[in-house]
Amino acid sequence: QDGPTRLAPGALDGRTVLVQGGAGAVGNAAIQLARWAGATVISTISSDEKARLATAAGAHHVVNYREGDTAAAIREVAPDGVDLVVEVAIAQNLPLDQAVLAPRGTVVSYANNGGDSITLDIRPHMGLNTRLQFMLLYTVGDAALHAAAEDITAAIEDGALDVGEDHGLALTVFPLAETAAAHAAVEDDTVGKILIDVTA
User: Fold this and answer.
1) Which residue in 76, 79, 91 sits closest to 20, CA to CA?
2) DSSP state, 113?
3) What is the pTM of this model?
4) Going by C-beta distance under 8 Å and a sequence separation of 6 or more, which residues neighbour residue 102?
5) What confidence tens digit (pLDDT) does each residue in 137-187 have?
């Protein structure tokens, strides 16, 4: 809630952003955009390969949530807490988010991977002045969509938002005739982005 309303170089200077699941497509973009805006970026991952992808995207620190005390590992690099959490699985991760959030921090949930409901500890969040933001592009409104398009375009023009292995986002390409296989790859949680080549 103390953060900027627009993204630009320097907009997140001095702030720490936690990207939960930084090896995914949205996590990848969040890492690159936060880094472009000047944030220190921490990402949770679940394997060495996913750590490599999140690091290639620009994460300063990666924490494997399957090894040890995740909150302690995040607090080690962000002792004052994180200012913003980009959340892919709030139903599973809200206790972790609470444990690492800085006062007046924001948790932005863009997906419900791992569950459709949350249990919220009111007093700890009240003490932090936590802001929970749920995000669905269809309902954010035209002003927010236009602002996002402008800011993302600026990041692309600066060369700060890219795809491919070198930028931490693996691309798996299927020909148009194998569209069913592309859908199967998505359902099988293939890491990265699935593309269908519609050229002849």
Assistant:
1) 91
2) T
3) 0.92
4) 16, 78, 80, 81, 82, 83, 128
5) 999 999 999 999 999 999 999 999 999 989 999 899 999 999 999 999 999
